[in-house]
Amino acid sequence: MATEMSSETYWNQTRRPLPCLVFLLPLVVLYEVGVILAARTGAEPELLRNGADSWLRWTIEQVGLSPIYILPVVLLAVFVSWQCYTREPWRIEGEVMLGMLGESLVLAVALMVVGRIQDMAFHRIEAGKIVASLGSSPTTFQELVCYVGAGIYEETLFRLLLLPAVYYCLTSIGIPTSASMTAAMTASALAFSGAHHVGPMAEPFVWFSFIFRWIAGLFFASVFVLRGFGIAVGAHAAYDILVGVLQFEL
Prior knowledge:
The chain has one domain. By secondary structure, the chain is mainly alpha-helical. The longest helix has 33 residues.
């Protein structure tokens, strides 16, 4: 095995199922175990779960699968099955994981730059305030758990499931590939933004927040298409943690 990894090899590997699976596994474990531990300290588990997570779990429950661990098992099983289907080697270079982590952080900072530009244009509020609502006085650990979960399950619902579904529906009726992809990315971004304003934990509608999340949705959709699901999750979680937990500002 080569000791150095070319950029082309890295570019391709990050979009394959095995690197995505390995990259996702510690995030899924952190989130699911974190919710259980937070519940034992008196926190309400449902307040730590974002809307996408709750909707996915509700959907799975409708087919008779209700244990709490079913959703992460299903998600990880998808990537295991995908890896088996591709028949690619069950081998991964360590540089790929480090590269995906570093790239996720770089993309998170890039989204912060986008938010800062919008903030300057609107002259309203700082981009650092555009994060998920956690209820009253969450601990730092609870914030961390919630934001990791948002990265995993919001990307699962809006990018891994919704975006391809819209794309293939449009191409199946004869719409050109480029137009279908543009429409699918836009639809997933609008759904992502709008989802924060529906349901029992909905946030009040504010144009700044809605537009920023729509732009962020397009950003994550582009990352998903070009760089793969793992990095999309990593960038989403990294952005939320940098802004919501570490209070990092540009």
